[in-house]
């Protein structure tokens, strides 16, 4: 899902969708947070 986000706007939208989808599954918050950190490190270009 995150691989489809090609722009910052799409990226933020996908993250928001992921966060809202976990509202009903609180046990997944830790894994989601760690996956978002990983994505932040790998997807956001460093200059």
Task: Explain the layout of strands and helices.
Blueprint lengths: L7 H14 L7 H15 L4
Anisotropy-based shape: flat
Range of helix content: 55-70%
Q: Regions with pLDDT < 50 over 5+ consecutive residues?
A: none
Distance between the termini: 25 Å
E-strand count: 0
- The helix tally amounts to 2
What is the averaged pLDDT score? Answer: 65
Order of helices and strands: HH
Estimated structural class: mainly alpha
β-sheet strand percentage: under 5%
Q: Please summarize the sheet with the most strands.
A: none
Give Rg in angstroms.
11 Å
What does this structure look like?
- By secondary structure, the chain is mainly alpha-helical.
- It is built from 2 helices and no strands.
- The chain has helices at residues 8-21, 29-43.
Give short descriptive properties of this protein.
47 residues; mainly alpha
How would you concisely characterize the structure shown here?
It contains 2 helices and no strands. The protein is an all-alpha fold.
């Amino acid at each position: 899902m995150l691989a489809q986000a090609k722009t910052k706007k799409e990226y933020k939208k996908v993250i928001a969708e992921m966060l809202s989808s976990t509202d009903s599954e609180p046990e997944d918050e830790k894994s989601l947070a760690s996956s978002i950190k990983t994505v932040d490190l790998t997807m956001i270009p460093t200059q």
